[in-house]
Amino acid sequence: MFPTVARVLELDVVSRGLPEVVAGAQHLERPVRWVHVSELADVADMLQGGELILTTGIALPEDREGLARYVRELADVGAAGLVVEFGRRYFDSLPRALVHAAEQRGLPLIALRRELRFVQVTEAVHALVVNAQLEELRSSEEIHQTFNELAVEGAEPVEVVREVARMAGAPVILENLSHQVLAYDTAGQNAQVVLAGWESRSRGVRPQGRTGYDPRTGWLTTSVGARGHDWGRLVLIGRPGSTQEDAVPQTASHRHTMLVERAAATLALNRLMVRDRESLERQTHRTLLSGILTHALTVSDVALRASALGVPLEGRRLVGVVLRQRRGPLPAALEAQARLRDFTETAAAAVRERRLTALVGALDDEAVGLLVSLGPKDDEHAALDGFAGVLRRLVTEQEDGPEPVVAVGSSVGSVRDARRTLVEATQVADAALHDTPSAPGTRTASYYRLPDVRLRGLLHLLRDDARLQTYVERELGPLLAYDAEHNSQLIAMLRIYLEQGRNKSAAADAAHLSRPSFYDRLHKVERVLGVDLDQVESCLSLHVALLALDAVRR
């Protein structure tokens, strides 16, 4: 907020006095809160700290000890510096004892070789101080208003980080406690450079206190959390507006300290407000998965952001996995959201337990997606089978419901093909929903792949084809219309009959009807459709149409 000693020396009114720094040159960044003109040797008693002392030296002690005491008292009270004008007491040089004491105590000592009007110096410096205070007030008001609006609007972390970077003109990173990047804005700088080796670099920066500045790296950091529970850290990188490593200041400006602390408070407040929503990690993972599926992110963006999250994708085998919960009674909207959120966190817990590397996030209102990243020595089947087993155990422990569908796409070797494996896994999951969990057919693993869904998988791939939809209408249209008109369940009866292998007795038991009642319904199906259900080819055609109807309705 205040001008530094170096800034004061650059003023025209001061430079006319030909100032020469004779001691304490390494401490010229000290802030000057006020300028005080005094010839008293005991002036320290009148100071509060931050003053730049102007003197002719006419009343300074003559002895070495007196000069050392004078400097010591100024340093102890926190004076910004001492300016001595030649022409009254000193003419060519300052006493060695004075210079030596100032150098030892780190007090900037400046000699003016030409006489100046001290009143002009005080007026110029005080104008800087007042202007800086006014600017600080304006800046504080801007920061306060900006982040109040973001808090009220419930802004996402990405929006908060973007605003900090804009106002600071420097890259800003929001990381979790494991030093993985949750959100970032590079303020126009190269993202590859900013995020390169982030975790190891971040672990090496540990300033004291909740908010601290590391002069070695130029990082200003502040903890993010509330109610005694920190969950992340906000990092402002380097000197705002500059990429020069040698331009890193020794302390962070008051404005930028206030900026990151206010942003951290906004992030913490919004986290409390949305604690019933998915975690920040899941939000970030979901954004990446969505970016892959919709082409909203470039390949390089996906790889870079995933790497910053601790999920390397380049040079790895990638496998798309989609999880769906088998349908039960339809829950209310809020309950459905909570169930999906819990299911997503359960999937993430299974990934952690199996020590897998993967992006995990919700894909839509019903499905959870994973992009598993496998190393060259990882066994794909063992990794996926182990994950599916842990997931089912965790789901069973949490609630007594049907086991989830775990669908897996073909593995790919590049980020560019990641969308393909995720899309394939989605198609497999949709087709596998109608499979019987207790009778997985020819599957030998605890998860589904395209060969496991067989005809259902093919029909699901063709579900948008008008020819398939025409086939369904031609085979089942009259029966669907009859059910709609008479509020009957003939389609359901036909499905049960075919699923029971055309065994009428078993089908009647499965439908919870007496045999005569069930047989009567089958005769109605034959009359409406004009088919003979004793003919194998007719039943096969109808069964395919029913499977296609399921695919179309999905």
UniProtKB/TrEMBL annotation:
Where in this chain does the entry annotate a coiled-coil region? none
The PucR C-terminal helix-turn-helix domain is annotated at 490-548
What InterPro entries does UniProt report for this protein, alphabetically? CdaR-like_regulators (IPR051448), CdaR_GGDEF (IPR041522), PucR_C-HTH_dom (IPR025736), PucR_C-HTH_sf (IPR042070), PucR_dom (IPR012914)
Domain annotation Purine catabolism PurC-like: ranges:
8-128
Q: Which Gene3D superfamilies match?
A: PucR C-terminal helix-turn-helix domain
Q: Which residues form the CdaR GGDEF-like domain?
A: 301-430
Name recorded for this polypeptide = PucR family transcriptional regulator
The record lists the lineage as: Bacteria, Bacillati, Actinomycetota, Actinomycetes, Kitasatosporales
